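Session log. Operator J.P. requested a structure for one protein chain; no other inputs attached. Running the standard single-chain path with token output.
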Amino acid sequence: MKCKYIFFLLLFAVATTTQAQNPEDALRTAWFTQNGTARMMAIGGAMGSLGGDITANHVNPAGLGLFKTREVVISPGFTLNNNRFNYRGTDTSGNKNAFQYGTVGLVWGSSKNNSYSKYTSSAFAISVNQLANYQNRESFRGNNNFSSFTEQYLEELVRDRADTNAALSNYIFGSSLAFRTFLIDTTSGPGNQVTGYQSLVPISSGVSQLYDAITRGGYHEIAIGTAGNVQDKLYVGFSVNLPIIYYNREFFYKESDLTNKTNNSFSFFEYKENFTSNGFGIGGKLGLIYKPVEMWRLGFAFHTPQLIGFKDRIRSSITANTESYAGTRSETSDNLNSGNAGIREYNLSTPWRVIASISHVFREINDTRQQRAFITADLEYVNYRSARFHGTNSSTDQLNRYYDFVNETIKDIYKGNINARLGAELKFNTFMFRLGGAYYGSPYNNENLQASKWLASGGLGYRNKGMFIDLTYSHTFLQDARFPYLLSDKANTYAEQRGSLGRVLVTLGFKI
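Structure written below.
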């Protein structure tokens, strides 16, 4: 499947006053590595059948059933982004560091003294976890004599058969800005009749392109869960999850003339955009852990789609220097929208997930202080192509048709894939040593788009007299593709991303 075919549907934008969503927005809430306590991160995020950690509330709530006491947990951390891009033969690198956090919350575990009850113990937990951290900066540059950012505006105007009045006013976050700054202008035929549109960017002689995006925010989840322990053999649990999302993107893009000529009607243009998205929703997770024989644990968990309502705001501007053609002109969406940001409200249902897990605990006895080691593994299937956009009650029929169109595109360009996690711990009385690793497969259906995440982690733990502290470092190797713009009439160009992400996480907990 060619990139041109994959992404041409993204440009089927609705001619309204705000930008439309695209499949990449759905992937932002789906393709991420596990996050939790330092203990959980040190073992590669494999928490499907192990239990006894508050992060089970966000992975397999049945793991809460192993708690028989109460504890409070906090998990501060730090993220180190190292981004490397290759765009049309030019290498670019950059760094972005930020604060993050893992699982924070409370667990209430209690034993059952009633001999008539089949439950040995039960537990209740409320916790918060940052599923994904959006603090990052992605920047790359390169020379291009094949395509231009401005061609997406040409496609939009030609596709809609827009007259000059429409070009001036109907696309106030993109094409209208380009038209008003003469970056895009009309072509004329006999009698000075408008016959079409043209870009003043001299693509054939080449332009220098710069892409720079600074993102902030995170994907947070509040989980309220409970679990029961049936005779220390079977553990069942479920949690209600409340996702809270904040995402902000400051985007800067520039194209400059490579010829340094002053008489070819183009020197440079700059596009700036500030996009903010806030979301709140609900979902659920349920699971079980079963001990068929001593020392072995089997786990299964199902994560329902989370239904999240979003409200987006966008502002954008273009400054273009077309030399003697029209000089330097600037226009902003605020000027065309009474000083207001563009607003859109919509709903998104995230992909569902299934986790199967197995653990082997050496010296599996009730007194966890006497256990000596464990090894655990998870296999997780995520159906990325099941993400869906939905309109709200106020959405027009045209907008609802657009969401149907985008949803069909999601089914074409994404696929389901397997994530694998493996971890182990070796215990010496009050000290623990941990190692882990994980692999996250590509969500893309196109094999030409190379994408994966490999994670390696290790950590130390100390537990004594009702207090514990864990320290972990994890390192993720990332491979992905970043498109500076998307066109439908020719193959799309993109930057190859091969970066890394380092995380330092500390968890401090107390029995209460």
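Operator note: The mean pLDDT is 91.
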